[in-house]
Design a protein that fits this description.
The complex is a heterodimer of chains A (about 575) and B (about 130). Chain A has about 575 residues and is mainly α. Chain A folds into two domains: about 525 residues, Up-down Bundle (Cytochrome C Oxidase, Chain A); about 35 residues, no CATH class. In chain A, helix 4 runs antiparallel to helix 5, helix 6 packs parallel to helix 8 and helix 10 runs antiparallel to helix 12. Chain B is built from four helices and one strand. Chain B is mainly alpha-helical and about 130 residues long. Chain B folds into two domains: about 60 residues; about 45 residues. The longest helix of chain B has 25 residues. Classes of the chains: A mainly alpha (about 575), B mainly alpha (about 130). The interface between A and B is large, with 85 and 66 residues.
């Protein structure tokens, strides 16, 4: 059925609109074009990939727990770290954000009945699923899965050094998931530009939606480059082209340029959505509006723009890139990120803090990501990078950044929106247990890896001699990995309990501020039966707390808070919005 | 529509400025080409939105003082359940897998993809169920 969605208004009838026959069960999963069904499918699929990649990480850490590890062969080890990286980055961290949570939440946050292109949205999911399964299926081929690292550097990834169907399946999988990401990007941009509720101007959008908009634009910048590069790589492997070869006029470092022109925006595609989730979670559980709302948005835009001009800081040691330019641009990213940290702390400052599981994960994100960010500034200095390139120092750095955002930030978002998506609450006690296991396990895993890197342990080695003196720190790191495994296991138990013994969630269990909390939990078909008037960036809060609206909050800040008031005013109350 | 176009045009001008600086700093064709493409990617839709934003009245979602009733009425047409995205996805995946397994995979894949395209067109024209 093609459905004409009416925009809900105070005058419209409260009963559900007629929407014909919708199938249920497996047929619903196969045929639904509802962003809520697709968003849930994406979330579950990406979490399954996350668990698979996590198991691979546990095997890797077990191998490295003692010198001359013999758990897996060197070849299998190469497959494992390649697939761990590929699954986590291409199939979990990205799709979990822009396919899962954003797909579900962005239309709700803008007050829309669905995504702008529902059938394209469904196609995105099917390309993502088939791509993901293709990547995993590489393990079933004779030569095994791809084993050249998630970056597939030429000439290691050519037909001589990496023969077999596994690497080809890896290439095809990334082409498919790349298209899926591009389609989702188009969908998110169109939804935010065209389907907002009346009164919801761009500078009243929740920060999560703003970050998803910038993320979607970055997807459109970055993923086509990767897809093109992959096709060129396939031509090298099968058609005898000499694009990335060392002979016949090819330039191997061109692959690195193309890959990282995708790869660096990709890092922010993986981080910005989680910044947005954390911002919304911090504001809700501090019972305050986002501090420096406009500053937050401009910081996001600056990070997005700058991320396109820093790609070669991954290639400092190739000796053929412009060190001062890329070093300077990389340093510049620290400025908007610093503004974000300032505003996150400002949002919590003198708020009424509620330490739910979501809030704990959000605060955990702040701490973990800060350390990852600071070591990132170190690595942006070419002298430091030359010393630590390809060591465990880099491994520890990007795990702090990516684990910090995608897992701490992502689970903050998941715990926050789980009641909206399922209509059920998760058990707080189990959630907090899983947080503490994860927080402690995280530091136990990755702090030793900084030291290992400074002691010279290279990345991607399957075994090391006892005489190197790396055994103790490696053992500590492996214990941390088991703690992380326990933490995720507790979370899975939590999901299972909420499935078997539900505690019903109301439409607005957290006293939320943004439009998704005006819908039922889970929302009805086409989402809203009613929308509150939108007069600020937190319409639901203003409606529920007429005694303390966002406007009044700003005015009282202005009068009493001195410096804080000035800063808030400077960032938020300028321009056409003051009434 | 103004803010939307300004966002994209900002991205475009940032890409153009950086491409210029990068070119005179490095004389590297590859990187400059990619940065120029980034600038054009912002310019095309940004310019389109800018052109329109000067020619249309602000929509209810562009006006800070708009009431919910200002946007009452039909938002748009949203397709209901459809099997064709699944068929098209499967077809696209099988076509892509021809790069690994050989041409036979593309025969099945293209068949599925073409029937999905036909199916979805018929479905849209009819405006009815699958």
């Amino acid at each position: 059925m093609t459905l004409l969605a009416e925009r809900p208004s105070p005058l419209s009838h409260p009963e559900e609109p007629e929407h014909g026959h919708e199938p249920s069960g497996v047929l619903n999963w196969l045929t639904s074009t509802d962003h809520k069904v697709i968003g849930k499918s994406y979330t579950i699929t990406s979490l399954v990939f996350f668990c698979l990649a996590g198991v691979m990480a546990v095997v890797i850490r077990t191998q490295l727990a003692s010198p001359d590890g013999t758990i897996v062969s060197q070849h299998t080890y190469n497959e494992l770290f390649t697939m761990h990286g590929s699954l986590m980055l291409y199939l979990f961290a990205g799709p979990f954000a822009f396919g899962g949570l954003a797909n579900y939440i962005v239309p709700l946050q803008v007050g829309a009945p669905d995504m702008a292109f529902p059938r394209l949205n469904a196609l995105s999911y099917w390309l993502y699923l088939t791509g993901g399964l293709t990547m995993i299926a590489g393990f079933l081929t004779v030569g095994g899965a791809a084993d050249f690292g998630w970056v597939a550097y030429a000439p290691l990834s050519n037909a001589v050094n990496s023969p077999g169907a596994g690497p080809d399946m890896w290439i095809v999988a990334l082409v498919l998931t790349g298209f899926s990401a591009i389609f989702t990007g188009v969908n998110i941009v169109a939804t935010i530009f065209y389907l907002r509720a009346p009164g919801l101007t761009m500078f009243r959008l929740p920060i999560f939606t703003w970050n998803m908009l910038v993320t979607a634009i970055l997807i459109l910048v970055a993923f086509p480059v990767l897809t093109a590069a992959l096709i060129l790589l396939w031509c090298d492997r099968h058609l005898g082209a000499h694009i990335f070869t060392t002979t016949g006029g090819g330039v191997p470092v061109l692959w690195q340029n193309l890959f990282w022109f995708f790869g660096h925006p990709e890092v922010y595609i993986l981080a910005l959505p989680y910044f947005g989730m954390v911002t919304d979670v911090l504001a809700t559980f501090s019972r305050k509006p986002v501090f420096g709302y406009r500053g937050m948005i401009f910081a996001t835009i600056s990070i997005g723009a700058l991320s396109t001009a820093v790609w070669a800081h991954h290639m400092f040691t190739t000796g053929v890139v412009l060190l001062p330019f890329f070093s300077l641009m990389s340093y510049l990213i620290a400025v908007p990120t610093g503004i974000k940290f300032f505003n996150w702390i400002g949002t919590m400052w003198r708020g009424s803090l509620h330490f739910t599981t979501a809030m704990l994960f959000a605060v955990g994100f702040l701490i973990v990501f800060l350390f990852g960010g600071v070591t990132g500034v170190l690595l942006a200095a070419p002298p430091v990078d030359f010393a630590t390139h390809n060591t465990y120092f880099v491994v520890a750095h990007f795990h702090e950044v990516l684990f910090g955002s995608a897992v701490f930030g992502g689970f903050a978002g998941l715990y926050y929106w789980y009641p909206k998506m399922t209509g059920r609450m998760l058990r707080e006690r189990l959630g907090q247990a899983s947080f503490w296991f994860m927080f402690i396990g995280f530091w136990v895993t990755f702090l030793p890896q900084y030291l290992l890197g400074l002691h010279g342990m290279p990345r991607r080695i399957a075994e090391y001699a006892a005489s190197e003196g790396w055994t103790g720190l490696n053992r500590v790191s492996s214990v941390g990995a088991y703690l992380l495994f326990i933490s995720v296991a507790i979370m899975v138990v939590n999901f299972y309990i909420s499935w078997r013994r539900p505690i019903v969630a109301s439409g607005n269990p957290w006293d939320g501020q943004t439009l998704e909390w005006a819908a039922a939990s889970p929302p009805v078909h086409h989402n809203f039966t009613w929308l509150p008037p939108v007069r600020s960036e937190r319409p639901v809060w203003d409606f529920n707390h007429p005694e303390h609206t966002t406007q009044q909050h700003r005015q009282s800040d202005h009068a009493t808070d001195g410096l804080v008031g000035v800063a808030t005013t400077g960032f938020t109350d300028t321009g056409e919005e003051s009434e | 529509m103004k803010v939307e176009s300004h966002l994209l045009l900002f991205m475009a001008s940032f890409g153009a400025v950086i491409a210029l600086i990068y070119w005179f700093f490095s004389y590297d064709d590859g990187g400059t080409a990619m940065l120029t493409a980034f600038a054009l990617l912002g310019l095309l839709p940004g310019g389109y939105y800018f052109w329109w934003s000067r020619r249309m009245a602000p929509r209810p979602e562009d006006r800070p003082e708009a009431k919910q009733s200002d946007g009452a009425g039909v938002v748009g047409a949203f397709p209901g359940s459809s099997i064709w995205p699944f068929v098209l996805g499967l077809g696209a995946a099988m076509t892509a897998l021809a790069l690994v397994f050989g041409f036979w995979s593309a025969i099945f894949g293209l068949t599925l993809a073409v029937s999905a395209v036909i199916g979805v067109i018929v479905e849209s024209r009819r405006g009815g169920a699958y």
